Fold these 2 entries.
Entry 1:
Amino acid sequence: MGNATVPENYLPILIFIAVGIVLGTLTLFLGKFVRPNQPYRAKLAPYESGSPLFQDARVQFPMRYYVIAMLFVIFDIEIVFMFPWAVAFTSLGLVGLVEMVVFIAILVVGFWYAWKKGALEWD
């Protein structure tokens, strides 16, 4: 082993971190010199939450914007639960398949309900 300042087991990790920092910094600087840079007034204007900033900051956004965002988050998170099931599909057998069919049916019913209520309309 020896009297090393950095243990030998940590050396590959430190090298990996150093290479990551160097490559990340290098690609950012190369991108700055290679990409086109032609700013104009509209491009530099602040843009937030899906609408240009032309009025008072206290403007109220339509509730539909938040409802659609929440529905996206809910369905997106629910879909993430399918990945572990897909990985362990062969070991779960018929019980796992039935449970996933019930899970997907609940998602479809929730999606259908949101669609019928008009929560997915932008009008």
Entry 2:
Amino acid sequence: MNNTAKRRQSVIKDLSLAPYGHKKLEWVQQFMPVLNILRQEFEETHPLANRTIACCLHLEAKTGYLLQTLQAAGADVIACASNPLSTQDDVVAALVDSGITVYAIHGESTEEYERFLAMMLDCEPDAIIDDGADVVTTLHKDRPEQAQRIIGGCEETTTGIVRLKSMDQGQALQFPMMAVNDAYMKYLFDNRYGTGQSVWDGINRTTNLVAAGKDVVVVGYGWCGKGVSMRARGLGARVIVTEIDPIKANEAIMDGFRVMPMAEAARHGDIFITVTGNVNVIRKEHMEVMKDNAIMANAGHFDVEISKDDLSALAASSRGLKNNIEEFVMADGRRLYLLAEGRLVNLAAGDGHPAEVMDLSFSLQALSLLYVIQNRERLSNHVYNVPAEIDRRVARLKLQADGVQIDQLTSEQAAYLASWDTNL
């Protein structure tokens, strides 16, 4: 156990939950072979020795194993939760038992969330891993002097990268950040296959309703929206996509989905899933025309995509029906349902992305964090894409772990591709 972590007092629900949390961590470790390879390497080289790393993430088993991997690299790891409903108290207890400092409790209030984030930053981290850019924005708004001492960090969500790029464009960013979400091995797999599966896992286990034969409205056709739509079709649903981007709208049509404005889709949908990273994409005028028993769920990072204020204002009454389902009865008797308080349904009402998928994303996180720390002197205060060599290394390690071999270019082929003036 790290001596510094020993001296700190974590704030968690119950340390006695640790034994079951350790079992969860053991389970996911078996299905995260790339991170296992990196952990073994880190245990020998300790590339993060004498570094304090602050991580604001969904604190469940797969993320927990990333934190343990960073610890194996020699880091003093401190963590807080990026979402109050995704925290698994038993996993948090196991992490603290492993010597990691954690400030997180499932269901924590907004005030507690902000206090825990501040406590994590009080530990004076050298670098950060963020999920939604709350750590970065807090440093810049409330702790500008501390921000100047940060080496840099990584961000893994679309929402967070949008915020960071806005700071970058405004020349406000005080340290370099790596846009892990934009790496090929992240969005092609995590956003599409991870979100596609885990969103439906959260919806199905919460509602226990069939998707087949229903009209599912997917709001946003980015990589997450593609995954949600693909899995909805696989479950037998009729999929409607709403978009603001004409290119993505054309792509959805080519993929075989109906595309229409939200004002029209609102009249048809049985299940609505938001994946935009934007605010109030489902709001009053849409709720006013929804069918009786319409279900709304959010798969974007923040709970702002479905207007909860409008829903409450329109409702004559509301009540919690079962865990993660709230019923809102409209004045005309229609019943609308909101899942998981409008928070990330796959994590608040499920266990998040599959371990095999997060293995790729978290390997990118670990390697990108190392890259920022090791190359700080030549990095400016900007948002950077993950270097291609890191992306490809994770891809190669995944194939290696799966026992898959691929072809390589012959010298003739390499020369042909490198030349514009060839006689072949």
